[in-house]
């Protein structure tokens, strides 16, 4: 998500409390937020749910946007967190409904019972987040949001070398979780 200067200006105004700017900002970013959520959640309905959650988070938390980095960078984090939260919610719901499903269910490490989508990478990321939470943000910003290393370092407030090290270690951990078939 790379936005023009008008979008960045709207974000600054919205962060300062301008409700009109916030409304215009939300309308303007919605297609990009949906597209970005779809990178995490290939089922359109799931991505739409994550998109709505992300837009709600932007509306509620825009006052936290300090302008130290670009709004698009801040938004990447919000969308990634919303998509992962939506995935966890879907997974929880599928477990709750498991009693109603026949015992021959697809392998949950490879398939979403709800969406019928491959979600093994999301499972691996969730596992990484549980075991090593300091690694997940850098990985998501680089491999999902496709931010440059310098942008990630700025966003996370970390030295560039630390960011590169965390991404390298996170990738290694995800590969281990996914197994040899995903090398």
Itemize the secondary structure elements and their pairings.
Layout: H1 5-15, H2 19-40, H3 44-61, H4 71-96, H5 120-131, H6 133-144, H7 149-156, H8 160-178
Pfam family, one: Sigma70_r4_2
Keywords: Sigma factor, Transcription, Transcription regulation
Protein name: RNA polymerase sigma factor
Structure at a glance:
The protein has 183 residues and is mainly alpha-helical. The protein has eight helices and no strands. The longest helix is centred in the middle third of the chain and has 26 residues, at 71-96.
Oligomer: single chain
Low-confidence stretches: 101-118
Cα(first) to Cα(last) distance is 28 Å
Total strands: the figure is 0
Radius of gyration: 18 Å
Which percent bin holds the helix content? 55-70%
Task: Report the portion of residues in β strands.
Answer: under 5%
Secondary-structure element string: HHHHHHHH
Q: What is the general shape? A: globular
- Give the biggest sheet: none
Q: Look at the structure and give the mean pLDDT.
A: 81
Q: Number of helix segments?
A: 8
Helix and strand content put the structural class at mainly alpha
What does this structure look like?
Residues 101-118 have low confidence and may be disordered. 70% of the residues lie in helices and 0% in strands. The protein has helices at residues 5-15, 19-40, 44-61, 71-96, 120-131, 133-144, 149-156, 160-178. It comes from Actinomadura meridiana. Belongs to the sigma-70 factor family. ECF subfamily.
Which keywords apply here?
183 residues, mainly alpha, globular, RNA_pol_sigma_r2
């Amino acid at each position: 998500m790379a936005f023009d200067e008008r979008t960045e200006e709207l974000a600054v105004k919205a962060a300062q409390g301008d409700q009109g700017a916030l409304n215009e900002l939300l309308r303007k970013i919605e297609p990009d937020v949906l597209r970005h959520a779809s990178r995490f959640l290939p089922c359109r309905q799931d991505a739409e749910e994550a998109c709505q959650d992300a837009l709600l988070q932007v509306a509620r938390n825009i006052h936290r946007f300090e302008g130290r980095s670009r709004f698009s960078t801040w938004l990447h984090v919000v969308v990634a967190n919303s998509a992962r939260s939506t995935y966890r919610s879907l997974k929880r719901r599928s477990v709750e409904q498991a009693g109603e499903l026949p015992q021959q269910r697809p392998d949950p490490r490879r398939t979403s019972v709800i969406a019928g989508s491959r979600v093994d990478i999301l499972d691996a990321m969730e596992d990484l987040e549980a075991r090593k939470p300091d690694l997940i943000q850098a990985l998501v910003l680089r491999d999902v949001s496709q931010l440059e290393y310098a942008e990630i370092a700025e966003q996370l407030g970390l030295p560039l070398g630390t960011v590169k090290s965390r991404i390298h270690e996170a990738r290694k951990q995800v590969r281990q979780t996914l197994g040899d078939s995903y090398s």
